[in-house]
Amino acid sequence: MDARSSTFETLSKRIEDRTARAGIIGLGYVGLPLAMAVARSGFAVIGFDIDPKKIVALDARHSYIDAVTNEVLAAEIDAGRFFSTTDFAGLADCDVIVICVPTPLTKHRDPDLSFVETTSRSIGAHLRPGQLIVLESTTYPGTTDDIVKVILEETGLKSGSDFFIGFSPEREDPGNQHYRTATIPKVVAGDGAEALSLMKSFYGAAVSTVVPVSSNATAEAVKLTENIFRSVNIALVNELKTVYAAMGIDIWEVIDAAKTKPFGYMPFYPGPGLGGHCIPIDPFYLTWKSREYELPTRFIELAGEINSAMPRYVVGKLAEALDIQAGKALSRSRVLVLGLAYKKNVADIRESPSLRLIEIIEERGGKADYHDPFVAEIPPTREYQALKGRKSIGLTPDAIAGYDAVLIATDHDIIDYAALSKSAKLIVDTRNVLSRLGLSADHVIKA
Question: At 26, is the pLDDT very low, low, confident or very high (cuts 50, 70, 90)?
């Protein structure tokens, strides 16, 4: 048996019998649930993060991610299958290393791979023969092979002989009670047949279904395709919303009727804009990469323009409603934005359109507060630094009545919408929640 075969066989056996140690880099919405799924499948897991506050919380058995309960976290720690650290020297002790770090955009909306590159160099500092390195962060096709692999091979070790590398796109959906990490099908790819075999074996131990594809670039394209599909279709219904509204037609009624067709139609719903780390950002990774091939991505870019314009459209409808129903300018109005999270029943505010709504209202001279039962205070953000530290106001009848308008941006289930409707002078509903609950009224405007 040559050295290459020995390296592969040894790692394959360690994964198969669960004696391999896994390292998960980035303990956020993707990394922490993955760490728990891998630990619960029998592997020892080390979680790595640069934020010491996360490590302190995890050591105290406190989960800051809704998808991971304190009980699950404590069970894995107490069983000796999980611990976390800021010391990346422990990467040398890991047989499988999974990168789950952010891939944001720059202010010019170009890919920002600085977290991936920095993490790859940290791994390179501790790289040894017999390790499997996996990228899960969403990115453009070619990143795993052209950036991560190249950085790792600067050590003198070679992919496919000394170490192995693969890509598996994360598919987390915060707040989804039907699909969790272990039950969401996992697309996997590797740099060569042996890497793919290791990927299938490792993820097959932790999730119910593994979907192998032919290359890392293909797997990278899978995730972009999923999110571009959603972005384009949401943009379509957002544009239809504006057109139908001008015609006096309710887009929500149209969609409800259209979805009764049992074939050839899939419902998507309009809103105040796109939020979350995936859909507002990921499509632009492909538009950037496509320039290398001198190919336009008109659908993708137009969808981005339409979705990005929604917060300003909604504030325009708010201003119009205030003028018509209250005879008051937005610049002299107090507005309560209901919901700061980007989707209902979660605490995730990444790329949330609610932040942009508050900003636009105040740009136009209005005063905006927010209420969100899941977000007590606005944390630091890249784009909305002026909003840092603002606190959620209490949703009492007197508080509601003190605002000229309530703007429903996120339809959390926990909200008492009947009480809200009774106390509010004017409601602008971007989620159709009041109509769905049979609470339509003259002071409720859809936007």
Answer: very high
